[in-house]
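Dig into my protein:

:::
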Amino acid sequence: MPRSSQRLSSEVPAEAPGVSGPSPDVLVVGGGLIGLVTAWRAALRGLAVAVVDPEPGGGAARVAAGMLAAVTELHHGEQTLLALNLESARRYPGFAAELTEATGHDLGYRRCGTLAVALDADDRAHLRELHALQGRSGLDSEWLSGRECRRLEPMLAPGVRGGLRVDGDHQIDPRRLAAALVVACERAGVVLHRAWAERLTLAGDRATGVVTGDGTALTAGQVVLAAGSAGGRLAGVPDAVLPPVRPVKGQVVRLTVPKRHAPFLSRTVRAVVRGSQVYLVPRENGELVLGATSEELGWDTTVTAGGVYELLRDAHELVPGITELPLTETRAGLRPGSPDNAPLLGPTGVDGLLLATGHYRNGVLLTPVTGDVMADVLTTGVLPEEARPFSPRRFGAAALSEQPT
């Protein structure tokens, strides 16, 4: 079993030339949802923690819609990931309540449910298959006729052929969640270094910290690489443990529902339109989020006319009334995809280096369980049972070294 973090931190000099301040027990590289929740949970366990990120609370959280959709996001071949998703969904109410109590922030957490609908015969057949898979997996979902779908959501198009009602799939506002986690970290004593991490530093075969863009050396007992899709590009990480994550571009559109149109939608509505996933997520504050494209275009984050057009076109087929709503924002971001679409959690083959990345489309959903898992392994050296299928060690050295350029 790896040595404890307290022992590890004593092996790094508290003060050294070029080092900024005393060395914490844990240095988290990346201040998105995953990095922040890791830092907060570790700090609550009594560890001294620092985060390095130029804009804590930014990243993919600025783009994500915040669907907590363990059931409707189920895909064939991802039953192992389903167990982790369900566990995190189970923890969400307590996690959200604890974070709100710690910060006073309203997270926009809603137990409104999801309605997945079909617009044609092929879509209906696809949903029927998903319903059967959900049933075999022991999940709760209810098949509805098109008329029953429209009774639940009167704004739906007349052509809806049927759908799945999933009351257990909820939502949260990722931007509010990220802002609350920044406050929670600060109140728990986490030090935020607002800078880029340029390079991992090693002493022999052990990770000891990072060097930032301005040349500052930050050292720590353990280093957690939680930088999303950028984690695969950090200099200094040995090829054998470089996380096999790639950026998957997603474009989203935000509309505003004027009070005269309320209520517009009472729950998240999603569908497959011409082979592409589209969803509409209504917030209590009147915002309506449309998303999301899925584009394998490397590091491009350009909002394109085509991407926005496709989202609006597909959403209009679901809910024709959206054309009357004001357009308030368009944005693109990068999801961290992994070879099996599942996260990489825990120790690597380099002593003192851990990963918390590769969450792909489930980063918001997996925030609570990731924080708990990483805090456990950082304090005990043992990866919890629920996270063992997602150890970075599941990928061989060859897979880990095959990185996109």
The two ends are 35 Å apart (CA to CA). The mean pLDDT is 91. The first helix runs from residue 5 to 10.
